[in-house]
Design goal:
594 residues; alpha+beta; Multidrug efflux transporter AcrB transmembrane fold; Alpha-Beta Plaits; 3 domains; 6-stranded antiparallel beta sheet; 5-stranded mixed beta sheet; elongated
């Protein structure tokens, strides 16, 4: 029985190029549809192209610590400010020192300049302080009950803190008053309502009105100081911005203080707070997460250091023995109460979470400030100016003209040298350009990517990288034709060698872009990011568009027969005659020798 003939099927050799082309076209349509659906039809521009806001900050040392304004602290402040502003991605904000005590922050148009201004200058001093008294401030305040003889204010049922504002171990059911958690979880949940600014708000708890005769008096505080604190508390009107800014100004962490915060009804609440029991250095990490296990939505989780965990457990254990509002602790960020949960048991475990009705931006904003810690110096905002993009626009036009000239020269070269194959190269360049444009437009709202002049240069440089990949493949195909093979086998035999060369070349380019992105800052990162993105897209286009398209065109008569204008004419390429098998002639035997 004759053995079956061995060989490769045509379908196995050339695959199904039509499906591959359909796949990349579907992806392009989906991305383009997503771009239009998002409403961001153009790439987000950097400050040098679209203008923006420039903030000048001046370092202000603490009294007696003038030497703190030094190069090391200034560079540390620049690094923290840059990470804060660029915390959501590649937003292309520029942060740099000017002179010995100034920092310039350039924020591109499209970024929330108000939010950025708050973040770059905020020192992020975080304290956990026990609440001694609190009430609604200003015109919204209503008559409140007098404190009890023990100095612990009473609370009406309507003013009693709800279960939502209570600190309990997460993962367990919210206990009623006096209940325990049964040790079901190690994470402490700090329940509070967030304010519109992105912070958890101080909910209106028990309304109290301390008087000189009966009021919560911080332990260890002299009576004169207590009287002054009570008088300042009575006069404090948190509805006035000037008074809010001065509340607690100059008070040390180990002293009682006054503070303001907003409750869930958007009313201003004023507080008397005890000395800080836990500070920001005891928080190891903070991040915004979405709670899929319950209806809590977005929340901010915090992990404490070992030392901070012990301090947090100790203060919550003390507060659990008190009545409202003295079973509450206030989370104070830069003098503002951002949350004031109450507890009825000691909370242990080393981690906590602030949850309520956060939006994604609010949660990320708070986590961003907490994660990047305190600035080593205090800064005063000297000036805020608007940057004109006229100069950058002129440079962009000049760059685009230069890029267009370079692209035209590349196309002319491809047409003259590769003739019909230039159609494949030009089509591939157009696909690559379309993908780059759409993806850059989508990256603007998602990771805050901003297209600046160096990024445009990176895109122009990518034209050469992409064209080089086409040339490598075309030359491999032409080499196979020179060896005497027809076009269709030549296309398939050339692909493995061309693929290897293209991947190695693009890997080197991508590695260089990645290293450049990591070790640089500012505008240079825009160049590196664009170069890396276009290098990845080059691989996608060559594999999913250029190769399948050439496989399909190799089946047409124009290319398969080697038309003089196809760029694959065997005569013009100096091809060898086709290799053919011939039977070896049998040797004649001389009868005499036989």
């Amino acid at each position: 029985m004759a053995a079956p003939k061995k060989g490769r099927s045509r379908q196995g050799t050339q695959g199904k190029p039509g499906r591959t082309l359909a796949l990349i076209l579907i992806a392009m349509v989906a991305l383009t549809g997503g771009m239009f659906a998002s409403g961001h039809n153009t790439p987000r521009l950097g400050i040098d192209l679209a203008g923006g806001t420039s903030i000048t900050l001046r370092a202000v040392p603490e009294k007696g610590q003038e030497s703190a304004v030094n190069e090391t602290n200034m560079n540390t402040a620049v690094d923290i400010m840059e990470r804060r502003v660029n915390g959501l991605g590649v937003s292309e904000a520029e942060v740099q020192t000017q002179g010995s005590d100034n920092i310039i922050v350039n924020i591109p148009k499209g970024t929330d300049s108000k939010q950025a201004r708050e973040q770059v200058g905020t020192t992020a001093k975080l304290y956990f302080r026990p609440v001694l008294a609190t009430e609604v401030s200003g015109a919204a305040a209503s008559p409140s009950p007098s404190p009890s003889a023990s100095g612990s204010p009473s609370a009406s049922p309507s003013d009693k803190p709800t279960e939502k504002d209570k600190a309990t171990p997460s993962g367990s059911a919210t206990p009623s008053a006096g209940a325990t958690s049964q040790g079901r979880a190690l994470t402490d949940a700090l329940k509070a309502d967030p304010t519109p600014s992105g912070s958890a708000s101080a909910s209106a708890k028990a309304s109290t009105s301390p008087s000189a005769s009966a009021s919560p008096s911080p332990s260890g505080t002299p009576s004169d100081d207590t009287a002054k604190l009570q008088a300042a508390y009575a006069a404090l009107d948190c509805t006035k911005e000037a008074q809010r800014a001065k509340a607690g100004d100059g008070v040390k962490a180990n002293e009682p203080t006054l503070a303001c915060g907003q409750n869930s009804q958007k009313q201003w609440q004023k507080y008397i707070l005890g000395p800080a029991e836990v500070d920001g250095t005891d928080v190891d990490k903070a991040e915004a997460v979405f709670d899929t296990q319950s209806s809590a939505g977005w929340k901010v989780t915090m992990n404490f250091t070992d030392k901070g965990s012990d301090k947090f457990a100790a203060i919550t254990g003390k507060l659990a023995k008190n009545q409202s509002p003295q079973n509450q602790f206030a989370i104070v960020l830069d003098g503002d109460v951002v949350s004031d949960p109450y507890v009825n048991q000691a909370l242990t475990g080393g981690s906590a979470e602030i949850s309520g009705s956060f939006t994604q931006d609010e949660a990320k904003n708070l986590a961003n400030v907490l994660s990047y810690g305190a600035l080593p110096l205090s800064f005063k905002e000297d000036s805020v100016t608007t940057v004109n993009a006229a100069l950058g626009g002129e440079q962009l036009r000049a760059g685009l003209i230069a890029g267009a000239i370079g692209l035209a020269l590349v196309v002319i070269y491809l047409v003259v040298y590769y003739r019909g194959l230039s159609l494949i190269a030009v089509a591939s360049l157009l696909v690559s350009a379309a993908l780059t444009y759409v993806i850059m437009s989508l990256l603007g709202p998602t990771i805050k990517f901003a297209l600046n002049l160096p990024a445009v240069c990176g895109a122009i440089v990518a034209i050469g990288i992409t064209a080089d990949s086409f040339i490598v493949y075309f030359e491999r195909v032409r080499d196979e034709i020179r060896e005497g093979r027809t076009l269709r086998p030549a296309v398939e035999r050339a692909w493995p060698r061309a693929r290897r060369t293209i991947l190695v070349s693009d890997f080197v380019s991508f590695l260089a872009a990645a290293v450049l992105f990591v070790v640089t800052v500012g505008k240079v990162q825009g160049f590196a990011f664009t170069l890396g993105l276009t290098t990845v897209l080059d691989v996608v286009v060559v594999f999913f568009f250029t190769k399948p398209l050439l496989t399909l065109l190799a089946r047409t008569k124009f290319f398969a027969n080697g038309h003089p204008w196809s760029g694959l004419d065997p005569k013009r390429l100096g091809a060898k005659p086709p290799l053919r098998r011939t039977r070896r002639p049998s040797a004649a035997v001389d009868p005499k020798e036989a």
